[in-house]
Amino acid sequence: MSSKRIVVTGIGATSPLAGTAPETWAALLAGKSGTSTLEQEWVERLELPVKFAAQAAVPAVEILQRIETKRLDPSSQFALIAGREAWADAGSPEVDPGRLAVDWATGIGGVWTLLDAWDTLREKGPRRVLPMTVPMLMPNGPAAAIGMDLHARAGVRTVVSACASSTEAIANAYDHLMAGYADVIVTGGSEAAIHPMPIASFAAMQALSKRNDDPATASRPYDVTRDGFVLGEGAAALVLETEEHALARGAKIYAEVVGGSVTSDAYHITAPDPSGSAAARAMLSALDQADASISDVIHINAHATSTPVGDIAEYNALRRVFGDHLDNIAVSATKASTGHLLGGAGAIEAMFTVLALHNRLAPPTINLTSQDPEIPLDVVTSPRALPAGDLLAISNSFGFGGHNAVVAFRSYN
Amino acid sequence: MALSTEEVLAGLAELVNDETGIATDTVELDKSFTDDLDIDSISMMTIVVNAEEKFDVKIPDEEVKNLKTVGDAVAFITAASA
C-alpha cells in the first residue's frame, strides 16, 4: 500500500448562504436558509410553477472585474471566485505550473449564455451574437477560467455527471494526485442554472419543491412532508495536494482525503436503483481505499436532496453498507440550508465534511420537523460535537444518469 | 439626421464602459483602443456591434481594423449617420 497521502490545504465557496467559505460555514452552523422567493420578472411573466430558489448570497458582479463578468458565464464566475478564495486560503503557494492541475465540475454549464444567445439570434440576428458565446457556454469554461487564473499546466479537466459531478471531480483529483500527475490540484464544482428553462424542466418532472408559500422551509430532507429539491447555485473549491508538498511549504492542513470512488447504476436515467447496490459499492470502495472499516465512519454528509424517492433510496444504500453501525453515525443533510447546487453540490458538501472534521463539529440539518419513519437515521439537527481521536467521514453524491460518487476524509493531526 | 461628434463620443464612451468598466471620461478622441484603453479584438467587436444598434449605422468588418482611435470611430459613425 502506498505511503503517499493527500491533504486539503485550502477551501473557498460562494453559496446561497454567503460569499465566502468561512461565512458559509458560519451561516450553516447558525441554521440559516439560503432559499427565498425569486423577484425576477420572468417568474410571473412565464407563470413558473416554482417561484423560489437558493440564489448566491453575493452576486458575482459585486466581486469580479467588469471584463470578467462580460467574458464568463455565471457558472465560470462562481468558479473563479471560489477557486481564488481557496487558493488564497492555501497561502497562494508557488507551484511549478507543470505540477498544478484543475479537476472541476458542472452539471449543466453555461445555460444562461446559451439561451440568451439563442434569444439574441432569433430577435436581432447573427451579428448581435457575442463573439465569446461558445467559449462562455462550454461546460469546461469554469475549469479553464480557474486554470488560466492560476497558470495550471498539468491538465484542466471537467467532469459532467449531473448532481454527482463535483464529488466525482474530487475523486478524480485524488486519483490524479495519487498517480503522480500533479503535486497540487484545485478541485470542486460550480453551477448557475437558476434560469426559467431548467426550473420549468425540473418542475415538469416533479423534482422541485412547490412550497411557494414558505420557501425557507422548502428544502427539508428526511421530513415526512418533503416534496422535492430546491434549485441552488454557486461554487465551492478545495485545494488538494500531496502531504509531502504541503509539509515542505508549511501549509495549514484541514483534513486528509483518503478515498474517492465512482460507480454507476445502469438502471434508469433519473430514478435511483431502489436496491442501492451500486451506491453502496461506491461507499464501500471509498472506505476500502481508505483502508478503513465501516465502524470507523462517524459522520456522513448525505446527498439527501429532499425528494420523496431519493432520500429513501440513499437510506437503503446506507443501511446496506453500514448495517447497525448506521445508528451510530451523525448524518447531516446540508441541502436543507444551501439548496441543491447540482454540479456544485458535491464540492460544497465535501467542504462541509472537511470543516466538520477540522472543527470536530457536525453541521445541522434544518427544517426537519417530522422525520420520515421509513428513514430512521441519526440526523444532526443542531451543531453536534464530534469526538476526539481519528475521525473518518464520507460525503455522498448521486446524479441523473445513475452516477454515484463518494469521497472519504480523515481528520488530520 | 447627422449626429454631432459630442453625441457620438458620449454614446461610444457608455458602450466602452459597459463592456470593459473603463470610466467614460477616459474615453477621449485621441485615445487608441488597443494601446491606451487596452481593449482587445473581442471587446472591440462587441462594442462595434453595440454601436451599430445604438447609432443605427453599419460598420463593415473590414472597416473595424481602421478604427484605431476613439476619434477614428467617432468620425466614422458621425459620417455614416449623416
UniProtKB/TrEMBL annotation, chain A:
CDD domains: KAS_I_II (cd00834). PROSITE patterns: KS3_2. Keywords: Acyltransferase, Fatty acid biosynthesis, Fatty acid metabolism, Lipid biosynthesis, Lipid metabolism, Transferase. The keyword Isomerase does not apply. Coiled coil: none annotated. It is an enzyme of class 2 (transferase). One of its GO terms (biological process) is fatty acid biosynthetic process. InterPro entries: 3-oxoacyl-ACP_synth-2, Beta-ketoacyl_synthase, Ketoacyl_synth_C, Ketoacyl_synth_N, PKS_Beta-ketoAc_synthase_dom, Thiolase-like. Pathway: Lipid metabolism; fatty acid biosynthesis. The active site is at C163. GO terms for molecular function: 3-oxoacyl-[acyl-carrier-protein] synthase activity. It catalyses: (9Z)-hexadecenoyl-[ACP] + malonyl-[ACP] + H(+) = 3-oxo-(11Z)-octadecenoyl-[ACP] + holo-[ACP] + CO2; a fatty acyl-[ACP] + malonyl-[ACP] + H(+) = a 3-oxoacyl-[ACP] + holo-[ACP] + CO2. One of its GO terms (cellular component) is cytosol. Its EC number is 2.3.1.179. Residues 3-411 form the Ketosynthase family 3 (KS3) domain. PANTHER family: 3-OXOACYL-[ACYL-CARRIER-PROTEIN] SYNTHASE, MITOCHONDRIAL, POLYKETIDE SYNTHASE-RELATED. Belongs to the thiolase-like superfamily. Beta-ketoacyl-ACP synthases family. Involved in the type II fatty acid elongation cycle. Catalyzes the elongation of a wide range of acyl-ACP by the addition of two carbons from malonyl-ACP to an acyl acceptor. Can efficiently catalyze the conversion of palmitoleoyl-ACP (cis-hexadec-9-enoyl-ACP) to cis-vaccenoyl-ACP (cis-octadec-11-enoyl-ACP), an essential step in the thermal regulation of fatty acid composition. This is 3-oxoacyl-[acyl-carrier-protein] synthase 2. It comes from Alpinimonas psychrophila.
Automatic annotation (TrEMBL), chain B:
4'-phosphopantetheine is transferred from CoA to a specific serine of apo-ACP by AcpS. This modification is essential for activity because fatty acids are bound in thioester linkage to the sulfhydryl of the prosthetic group. Residues 1-82 form the EAL domain. InterPro entries: ACP, ACP-like_sf, EAL_dom, PP-bd_ACP. Keywords: Cytoplasm, Fatty acid biosynthesis, Fatty acid metabolism, Lipid biosynthesis, Lipid metabolism, Phosphopantetheine, Phosphoprotein. Residues 3-81 form the Carrier domain. Pathway: Lipid metabolism; fatty acid biosynthesis. One of its GO terms (biological process) is lipid A biosynthetic process. SUPFAM superfamilies: ACP-like. It is found in: Cytoplasm. It comes from the Bacteria. GO terms for cellular component: cytosol; membrane. The modification O-(pantetheine 4'-phosphoryl)serine is found at S41. One of its GO terms (molecular function) is acyl carrier activity. Belongs to the acyl carrier protein (ACP) family. Carrier of the growing fatty acid chain in fatty acid biosynthesis. This is Acyl carrier protein. The gene is acpP.
